[in-house]
Structure formats: structure tokens, C-alpha cells
Automatic annotation (TrEMBL):
<keyword id="KW-0349">Heme</keyword>
<protein>
    <submittedName>
        <fullName>Hem-containing dehydratase protein</fullName>
    </submittedName>
</protein>
<dbReference type="Pfam" id="PF13816">
    <property type="entry name" value="Dehydratase_hem"/>
</dbReference>
<keyword id="KW-0456">Lyase</keyword>
<keyword id="KW-0479">Metal-binding</keyword>
<dbReference type="GO" id="GO:0046872">
    <property type="term" value="F:metal ion binding"/>
</dbReference>
<dbReference type="InterPro" id="IPR025702">
    <property type="entry name" value="OXD"/>
</dbReference>
<dbReference type="GO" id="GO:0016829">
    <property type="term" value="F:lyase activity"/>
</dbReference>
<keyword id="KW-0408">Iron</keyword>
Amino acid sequence: MDKTRHDSLGLEHTSSCNAWSLTISALESSVADHLQCPRSIPARLPSPSFQPPYPGFSVRFPQDVSQLVIAIVGSQHRPSVSPTSVAVSTSHAAISSFLASTRPSTPPSFVEWASVTDNRGYYNLCALAYWDGKSSYESWASSSGFKAWWDGLDADADSQDDDLDQGPGWFLEILSPTTDRFETLFNTDSAREGSSHFAGACMSSAVQEHGYWGSMRDRIPLSQTDVLSANNTRLPSPSQLTDSNADHRKKRITIPRHRNLAIIRSGQDWSTTTPEERKLYLQTMHPILQKGMDFLQNHGKEEVGCYSCRFMHVLDSETEKTDRTFGLAYFDELASLERWSKEHETHLAIFGGFFRYAQQLGNNVTLRVFHEVMVLEEGQQFFEYVGCHGDTGMLASRG
Ligand code: HEM
């Protein structure tokens, strides 16, 4: 007879769900040895001998990597501009020319292109570029000519204003967490995403800190000694434009820095699934996920502390969509992200849907999911927008 039990995520299992009760003998901590320290803040781990009900893995960086940089560089095109237009292609070429430049000695370790049409109908195209150190990023930005190009963009000339030029808006979002403010979780150790492309990076063995609410926090090394709260303190950026009543579409706007801003990039890859699983994913999971991302985009700020959410499609050429997506969301603090994932019906639907999906596949899931989460202090973030509409990225955090 099946025995019903509830695990740390509140999921109901029966003893016939064999794959969920597999024993993982050699669990390691998601927090790398050199980042472990005596805790002044208790972990959320249910018990020291806790065994997650399914395996999860984290990226390990070489010890000399203490900070990473993720630069999100994009163009924004008004609804009348087709994603396949010359205008979009020209923007892609402009950004690519810096990322692919052979001049810099420190090119990005990894670049990925992605796009989304936002809730105002604007097409946003961007590159996500990763460096394994801030000095590498800075050296690339100046030697490739990117910095000079970015600083020289003319907000008026490139405005989205209907009466002016038809040029795109531009955005630059630089996330540079130290490794003690960064965590990853993958459902497989064979996938490579984002920061796992760094030279010398590898995947951990199965980690202990997952499979319970609060495990994301436990995986962030600094949470051992810091509650990572925002306290709602916003510090002005050196070049901040304070005229919030002005038409942002004609402006270059630098966003005030937020204490302990929490960012998640949560990815899904169904490119290697069987035809049966692919169909199931697209018919069941993808719509629920879209609904959750729509909620965060349209109501996140007022209801759950999410300033911005883009549900992006990864591209393999200028416009060609792959079988990979990710949600990129900016929350006012980690506690808000935790609350949304644990309590809000939209993530609970995604989460519950996933376990039903797994059950339908007899727990033989080949869908790959991962996330990268970071909590940024003031000096580890830079958000600047040139001629973008007012709901773009962190522009939405104003007012
Ligand atoms: C198909 C898509 C998704 C699936 C299947 C999924 C499923 C899950 C699962 C199974 C967990 C528990 C992981 C563990 O600890 O072992 C989890 C945690 C979490 N998910 Fe999702 N999720 C998806 C998309 C997203 C997206 C797009 C976001 C945010 C933009 C998100 C935010 C979170 C957060 C923050 C946690 C950690 C909660 C904590 O440990 O406190 N998820 N999700």
C-alpha cells in the first residue's frame, strides 16, 4: 500500500514515487569550501542530515574568481518596427561589433543573444555577456571601443519619440556580484549555462541545499552572516538625472543604486527532450510559465516587489528563436523573491505543474532548468537607459 508523505516543499508523495526518494550518498554543500564561515544567521536547512528528494547541482568557480560581470546590452524598437527589419539588424551589428572585436585582450567568456516583445509592444533585443572579473570587463569596455560608443549615444537623436527620429532606444545593465553574493542551481550536471562557461568552472556533485523553501538563500554564501535586506535605502548614482517628470524617451537615465537588489535569471531548455516530452512541455509547462512571467511583468512592482521581468527567448542568430527561454527578473530584495516563489499562485502553479509533468513522464525528465541568483550591493550594479520607454528594466523602479 502507498504511504503518503509531505516533503520540505510541501509536496505530497507516495512511496511508489521511487525517483523522488533516491538516496544521494555524497552530498556536498552548494557553498564552496573557501566561502564557508561560522554562521551568525541560522540556515533554513530543515536538518543537518536533510536529503533533497531529487538531485541539484551548483557551478564551482576557480578560487581566484571572486567577482563576475554580466553585461546586458540591448536595443529597444517601437511596435511599428519588425524584428526582422534593417533597424533591428543594424542594432544587432552595432553591439556585436564590440563583443566580437578582436582588439581586446579580455573578450567575454560567454555571450548569448535573447529577445522579448514587452507589454507595450516594443521589441527588445539584447546580448548577455559574461566576464570572470571586473577588471576584465572594464578592459574590454575601453579597448573594444564599447565605452566610448555607449557614452556617445545621443538620447535626443536616438529617441523613441514619435515626432523625432525612428531610431531605437538602448539599455545597458551591468550586474557585477562578488561570488559570495551569487548562487546557481541546475537540475542536471551536464548542462552549461551562463557563468558555468568560465574557464576552470565546473559543476559540483549533488548539493544538499535545495528541495526546501529558503534553500536559495542558503546557497548564497553571504547569507551565513548577512540577512541581505534592502532597508529601502536608495543611493543616488553619480550621474543620476533627477528630473523624473521629464519625458524619459528623450533622456539618458542612470538609475539610483539599490541596496541588496535581488536578481534571478531562471532558464528552461527543452532542446534535447524527446518529441513526447517536448509536446508535453509546450502544452502544459510553457503556458503556466508565461502566465507567471506576465504577472511579474504587469503586476510585479505593486504586488510583490518585482521591478522588472522579461521572459526572453534565446536566439541562435539575429532573430531565430531556439528551444530555450529564461525569465530575467529584478526584485527589490531577496525576501520578496522568496515570498513570490513560495507563496504566490503563479510560481506555485509552475512549481506544482512541474511535479505533475515529471509524474506524467515517469520521472524521466530531460527538460533542463537552471537559475542564477545574485544580491547586488550598491557598487555592483549599473543601469542606464537611452531613449527607452519608462517601463524598461530598472526604469520602472522610479517613482
Ligand atoms: C519551467 C520553469 C520553472 C520550474 C519547473 C520551476 C521549478 C522550481 C522548483 C522545482 C524549485 C525548487 C528547487 C529546489 O530547491 O530544488 C523552484 C525554486 C525556485 N524558483 Fe522556480 N521554476 C521555474 C521557473 C521559475 C522562474 C521563471 C522564476 C523566477 C523568475 C523562479 C523562481 C524560483 C525561486 C526564487 C526558487 C527558490 C525558492 C527558495 O529556495 O527559496 N522559478 N522552482
